[in-house]
Amino acid sequence: MARAGLTADRVTLAGAELADEVGLDHVTMSAVARRLGVKDASLYVHVRGLEDLRGRIALLAADEKTIRIAEATAGRAGKDALVAFANAWRAYAHDHPGRYTATQIPTQIDPELAARAPGPRRAVELTYSMLRAYALAEPDLTDAVRLVRSTLHGFVSLEAAGGFAHARPSEASWARCLDALHALLEHWPAPCEGDPS
Amino acid sequence: MARAGLTADRVTLAGAELADEVGLDHVTMSAVARRLGVKDASLYVHVRGLEDLRGRIALLAADEKTIRIAEATAGRAGKDALVAFANAWRAYAHDHPGRYTATQIPTQIDPELAARAPGPRRAVELTYSMLRAYALAEPDLTDAVRLVRSTLHGFVSLEAAGGFAHARPSEASWARCLDALHALLEHWPAPCEGDPS
DNA sequence: GGGATAACCTAGGGATATTAGGTTATGGTT
DNA sequence: AACCATAACCTAATATCCCTAGGTTATCCC
């Protein structure tokens, strides 16, 4: 009998493709096995189980998203970089809705596996280096990084969940939100009185 | 045999409680039935199925979150209102992690059911009225509403997913992000050249 | 060619989602 | 107070799913 040539990465990829096509929570061991022309049990050699598979999809998505962002922002700085960064983020979420939702799941990813995946850490590092142009000092820099990531993720997430009414195209709001973020980063406020920094 | 006195709302509530305790994707028909002391099949009288139940949990969460925000912001204005609004949002997500994740799921909620639930719409309205203090004109107002909602949701979501390293307490970043949002709303930028408004 | 390794399979247990159809409590009617 | 219609709840059954245990067979290396 011919071997399918499975590997953990190929199983993960099949799961990721399936997630984009039918939604993450229709990604089942059986469905992935069918897509690969293999029996369910064969997957457990490469993947610990469904939970593990979902974690791997999340890490794959983080890696892919990071690569796209890195390519988009290469050689850019200032607002140019911010816009490229944000658009790459959003485009990835649009292109791979299933993969993207996998990244949001508060699942317990195998730490050893997570350590091998550069995506999540690199994504944060990229955000830091993109924000260097705005000359923020710590701890403001960290706060700004978290705000930018929160806003981008939140917008994309709400958009995907249909959170924006149809009155105004979300495209237009997106562009203006990036304007606003840029302005904010250029004029990052001092801590308010009473705030422990 | 004594009746359990089930109703769609009671089933939804049981599911919501379970979601907060064991995580949304461990909410199963069987588990909800067990918690209610009832057989699985009995639930289908009140709820169309698992998908429907999750949608109902999401709507319940939206309603509850909206009520909390309304109470927290009552009688406040300006930054005071913004902070109260944001803290109520975040507190709800912390208190009810399962319910909150239900709101993020891009599930197809029964439109007739969604129309009956005031939560999501009211939440947006509350955001609008909170932002009136900043005197923004449309379409900037809508964009600002979307930005604020994106940032709050994104922060809470990333925080729940463990997206923030432990280097700096997320609590501190949260406070500074609210400072930043307030400053941004007070100095909302004009559209950049080349942007269609 | 002959192991050793690992890829893949068969078989099966336990849990779940959902439907169909039967039984019994409950509230209003007379 | 008996009665009846409604709907709440149950039994039974099917299909699917996750996962484990243990057996076969392809593939690689000597």
TrEMBL record, chains A, B:
Q: Annotated DNA-binding ranges?
A: 28-47
Q: What is this protein called?
A: TetR-like C-terminal domain-containing protein
Upper classification of the source organism reads: Bacteria, Bacillati, Actinomycetota, Actinomycetes, Streptosporangiales
Signal peptide: which range, if any? none
The answer to whether keyword Transcription applies is yes
Pfam families recorded: TetR_C_33 (PF13305), TetR_N (PF00440)
Highest taxon of the lineage: Bacteria
Please report the organism this UniProt entry assigns to the protein. Answer: Streptosporangium fragile
| Record keywords | DNA-binding, Transcription, Transcription regulation
What InterPro entries does its record include? Answer: Homeodomain-like_sf, HTH_TetR, MT1864/Rv1816-like_C, Tet_transcr_reg_TetR-rel_C_sf
Does the keyword section mention Transcription? yes
Using the record's annotation, list all stretches that form the HTH tetR-type domain. Answer: 5-65
